[in-house]
């Protein structure tokens, strides 16, 4: 709790740094437990706003849904979210758009001594699922199961819950396997749990070879058009901060207090998975692959995840003019 209080104070201080009337202000919603907070702290530690072409105002948000509400209400200019939501909002006439932030996509984990070594072994077991019934990785895992002749939705017991609670349930053997977000998967890996399959592995097994970022910066196209220079400057500053965290042990240690763990093995695994999620390629091939993933999800979720539109909406992915 004390780290979260310190984080809020940091955000308040950070949001006031370098404020000047001659520079546009970008208001960004930030989860206290999210990795974006790490990058913003790295920017502050490196005095990265001193000569930036923008001011930055951070707004603490409780969860991803709260971030979406804040963006729609105009309380923030930008959040980190997924392109599936962006496409569904565009289908409703909104002009939100997406720019990649991270390709980390979580994974399927089991205890080190588990006899589960394949999807077929999950049948009859209890599977914890972070993100709920409409979690993207769960939908894709079901697609892979059907490809192998397995109806995972019917052949196993599903347990939904918050990621920290599910980690505890796996540790106490109340569930047999866990499909969760990458940060929580990394913590388990550091404790000796075995990753059976990553989110990226699931997508590749479905025949899609490109790495498609799962999360990105989401903002209105109209806002981006009005603030393109500032937006480009922010994206470059954020990328520099991400690279600094991956290339500098000192910079990484400075932000690890935000991860709320003194365990060096966990810190090391968090860094490994975080840096693996850096977006190295983002172009036509990756965006076409995203369209294929969207169609898979549309068929599997009975439109609950994607909405009624069968195709990824034009403009979902932002490109500078």
Automatic annotation (TrEMBL):
Q: Which Pfam families match?
A: NMT1 (PF09084)
Q: Where is the signal peptide?
A: none
- Please indicate which superkingdom the organism of origin belongs to: Bacteria
InterPro entries annotated for this entry? SsuA/THI5 (IPR015168)
Q: Where is the SsuA/THI5-like domain?
A: 52-242
- PANTHER family the UniProt entry points to: ABC TRANSPORTER SUBSTRATE-BINDING PROTEIN, ALIPHATIC SULFONATES-BINDING PROTEIN-RELATED
The name this protein carries in UniProt is ABC transporter substrate-binding protein
């Amino acid at each position: 709790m004390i780290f979260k209080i310190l984080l809020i104070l940091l955000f308040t201080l950070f949001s006031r740094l370098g404020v000047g009337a001659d520079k546009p202000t970008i208001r960004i919603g930030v989860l206290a437990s999210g990795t974006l907070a790490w990058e913003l702290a790295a920017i502050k530690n490196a005095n990265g706003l001193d000569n930036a072409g923008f001011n930055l105002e951070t707004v603490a948000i409780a969860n991803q849904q709260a971030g979406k509400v804040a963006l729609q209400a105009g309380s923030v200019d930008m959040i980190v979210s997924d392109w599936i939501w962006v496409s569904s909002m565009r289908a409703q006439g909104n002009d939100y758009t997406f720019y990649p932030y991270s390709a980390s996509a979580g994974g399927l984990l089991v205890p080190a001594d588990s006899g589960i070594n394949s999807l077929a072994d999950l049948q009859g077991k209890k599977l914890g699922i972070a993100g709920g019934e409409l979690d993207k990785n769960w939908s894709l895992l079901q697609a892979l199961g059907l490809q192998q002749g397995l109806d995972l939705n019917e052949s196993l017991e599903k347990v939904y819950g918050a990621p920290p609670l599910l980690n505890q349930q796996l540790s106490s053997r109340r569930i047999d396997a866990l499909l969760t977000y990458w940060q929580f998967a990394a913590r388990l890996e550091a404790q000796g749990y075995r990753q059976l399959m990553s989110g990226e592995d699931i997508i590749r097994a479905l025949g899609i070879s490109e790495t498609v970022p799962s999360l990105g910066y989401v903002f209105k196209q109209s806002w981006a058009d009005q603030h393109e220079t500032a937006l480009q400057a922010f994206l470059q500053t954020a990328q520099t901060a991400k690279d600094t965290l991956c290339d500098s042990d000192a910079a990484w240690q400075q932000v690890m207090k935000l991860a709320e763990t003194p365990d060096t093995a966990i810190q090391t695994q968090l860094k490994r998975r975080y840096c693996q999620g850096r977006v190295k390629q983002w172009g036509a091939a990756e965006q076409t692959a995203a369209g294929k993933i969207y169609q898979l999800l549309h068929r599997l979720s009975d439109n609950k995840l994607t909405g009624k539109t069968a195709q990824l909406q034009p403009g979902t992915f932002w490109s500078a003019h």
